[in-house]
Design a protein that fits this description.
By secondary structure, the chain is an alpha/beta fold. The chain has one domain: Response regulator (Rossmann fold, 3-Layer(aba) Sandwich), CATH 3.40.50. Helices cover 35% and strands 15% of the residues. The protein has a four-stranded parallel β-sheet, with helices on one face. The longest helix is centred in the C-terminal third of the chain and has 22 residues. The model has no long low-confidence stretch (mean pLDDT 92).
């Protein structure tokens, strides 16, 4: 039987902040009912420490995450592709649902500046879950 779980891919340039936080929230709030991926068009060497700290404040541990490179296969395997400032670098395939979330870039920001970005991401992820018909944890 094919897997009926929806799959979501979060894409930003460095896959070090916004897309990592979004993936962590969706993984946590969906309790495994959504396949979650994140990637970057030009991945950073490491996840933004301020993003890791901001997420830890919500009880979500992102410390083991690493930035991943965006692949055509990841896009093809996803039902919903959510871009966050990667512009035209994300491949577009027919039949996929694309959303572009305009969010401030947390790169180089301290945790105080990252918190409102984190909170907006959580709000949007909760809205996405509602659209998918999945109750958030």
């Amino acid at each position: 039987m094919p897997d009926s779980k929806p799959s979501v891919l979060f894409v930003c340039v460095h896959n070090a902040g916004r897309s990592q936080m979004a993936a962590a929230f969706l993984t946590h709030l969906s309790e495994g009912r959504v396949k979650v991926r994140s990637a970057g068009s030009v991945p950073a060497a490491a996840v933004n420490p301020a993003a890791v700290q901001a997420m830890a404040e919500t009880g979500i541990d992102m410390s083991a995450e690493t930035p991943k490179v965006l692949t055509v296969e990841a896009v093809q395997a996803s039902d919903v592709v959510i871009t966050m400032g990667c512009g035209d670098t994300c491949p577009v395939f027919p039949g996929k649902r694309y959303l572009d979330w305009k969010l401030d870039d947390p790169a180089g920001q301290g945790v105080a500046a990252v918190r409102p970005i984190r909170d907006e991401i959580e709000r949007r992820v909760r809205g996405l879950l509602a659209e998918l018909g999945i109750e958030a944890a």
